Amino acid sequence: MSVIVRKMRDEDWAAVQSIYREGIATGNATFEVGTPEWEEWDRNHLRDGRFVAINEGQMVGWVALSPVSSRGVYAGVAEVSIYVTSSARDKGIGKALLRALIEESEHKGFWTLQAGIFPENEASIALHKACGFREVGYRERIGQMNSMWRDVILMERRSKVVGI
Question: Over the Cα atoms of the chain, what is R_g?
Fold first, then answer.
């Protein structure tokens, strides 16, 4: 698979939204039940650290950062969202996206990246670990989904070049 990772553009939204919707449908990617409109998604995600993966002219994945707080002391901390379409999983696309994101985030001054992952999403946990994230917490029964309580594993990656 020949994959190109590039910066996300505003006009990529339809494909990004479709991959996001597919992730939501798995029931193990997010607490979200539907995708927002572009304006809301754009407002809630940082401009830095938005990438897409393209294979044979088709978008097959995306990654983006969102702020964890508006407080200045957390300016270098962001949360990762990463989604890969089902037909392209287990082919190194997630790793390529996450590595591009890490490089960009450090260039932009981020010292900590975090991710909240359902324990059932073993592939995402393995991907994050492979890219230097570690488990820092287990949030038991943190939210309900379809009337069932769900746990979330909190993972983080501390930069070795920023904030040291």
Answer: 15
Per-residue model confidence as pLDDT tens digits over 44-86: 999 999 999 999 999 999 999 999 999 999 999 999 999 999 9
Q: CATH code at 116?
A: 3.40.630.30
Q: Structure tokens of 37?
A: 């409109």
Contact 38, 13 (CB under 8 A): yes
* Any domain includes 164: no
Domain range for residue 92? 3-158
Q: Tell me what the pLDDT averaged over the chain comes to.
A: 95
Question: Do the bridges between strand 58-67 and strand 112-117 make them parallel or antiparallel, or are there none, so unpaired?
Answer: unpaired
How many angstroms separate the Cα of 102 from the Cα of each of 12, 58, 72, 129? 21, 23, 21, 13
Q: Give exposure, 28-45, as e/b (b: 16+ Cβ within 10 Å).
A: bbbeeeebeeeeebeeeb
163: in domain: no
Is there a domain that residue 27 lies in?
yes
The fraction of the chain above a pLDDT of 70, given in percent, is 99
